[in-house]
Design brief:
This protein has 299 residues and is mostly helical. It contains 12 helices and no strands. The longest helix is centred in the C-terminal third of the chain and has 31 residues. The protein is globular and about 70 Å long.
Length: 299
């Protein structure tokens, strides 16, 4: 991988992780303040993503950028994973607090991606295991004060959401046309969105406010639609293990966002946790390369 590819991957990854953290904040604001019901939030979020991605895809097509044969159309499997993630995430936060939900979600994502990678025969070096342990320890340490015992249904829903997001991420690693794939993945969720709408209409379980709708639109259009397309682009330069561990940065970024935007005090706990997470990520991202290079030089 040349320098340009490394820099591009780093920039795309950074933007995507910022989008994930922003998405988390938007979801918490909408559902935590009960300004919209979970089903409607999911529907508006996905529809907003479809509209923005369709516009971007159309503009891209107008420049006559053609997709390679057999690519650029997403997949039904990825669409199902995307929908399960979004719907489960929304309903899980009705019974989970923020810290518990984030820990279950990102812990499950990481475990899912690592298990799949190991199942495919990708063995971890000791330096990657060490980095993984440090990053996850820092993540748990940061959330420890706000973790409470989760309800069974909330736990199961957020676990399903994490497995689905891990699967969606793994499916995107081979994408040659990230914008097009993301567009069609979102578009394929329309049948599931329609079913969800019918169910909540029959149940009479709709509650909307202008603030809730706005937050759902921002979540879908920017943090989800654009963010996920950029994430698919970043995945082309990341291993499955790197992609899994890097996502542990999201809650740290969200915590720092709280410091910047809500005038929270920078605590010693936040500083220590950030060092553990960032140090662990550095080991996972760079450790394999330098260890293999060292072994090669000794031969």
């Amino acid at each position: 991988m040349n320098l340009h590819s490394v820099v591009s991957t780093a920039l795309f990854t950074g933007f995507a992780l910022l989008a994930f953290a922003g998405n988390s904040v938007l979801c918490r604001l909408a559902l935590g303040e009960q300004s919209i019901d979970a089903g409607s939030f999911t529907i508006i979020r996905l529809l907003s993503g479809i509209v923005v991605l369709s516009l971007l895809w159309y503009l891209r097509q107008s420049h006559r950028v053609k997709c390679p044969d057999g690519s650029g159309r997403g997949s039904w499997r990825a669409a199902v994973m995307l929908f399960i993630y979004a719907l489960s995430f929304s309903y899980a936060y009705l019974s989970l607090d923020t810290g518990t939900g984030a820990l279950i979600l990102f812990g499950t994502v990481q475990i899912t991606m690592i298990l799949v990678s190991l199942f495919k025969g990708n063995r971890l070096l000791w330096v990657e295991w060490l980095g993984l342990f440090l990053a996850f320890s820092g993540f748990v340490y940061l959330l420890a004060p706000v973790i409470s015992t989760p309800g069974l249904w909330g736990f199961l829903l957020m676990t399903a959401s994490g497995i689905a997001w891990g699967g969606y991420t793994l499916m995107g690693r081979g994408s040659e046309t990230p914008l097009s794939d993301t567009h069609f993945n979102f578009f394929r969720t329309l049948p599931f969105v329609a079913i969800t709408l019918i169910v909540i209409l029959l149940a009479g379980d709709i509650y909307l406010t202008s603030e809730g709708v706005l937050l759902a639109v921002l979540s879908g259009a920017i943090a989800s639609g654009v963010g996920y397309a950029i994430w698919y682009r970043a995945l082309s330069g990341l291993s499955a293990i790197q992609a899994a561990v890097l996502q542990l940065l999201v809650p740290v970024i969200a915590a720092l966002g709280g410091v910047i935007f809500t005038d929270e005090v920078i605590s010693m706990r936040l500083m220590i946790a950030s060092l553990f997470v960032l140090g662990g990520i550095m080991l996972v991202v760079t450790g394999r390369y330098y260890l293999l290079q060292r072994r090669a030089n000794q031969v």
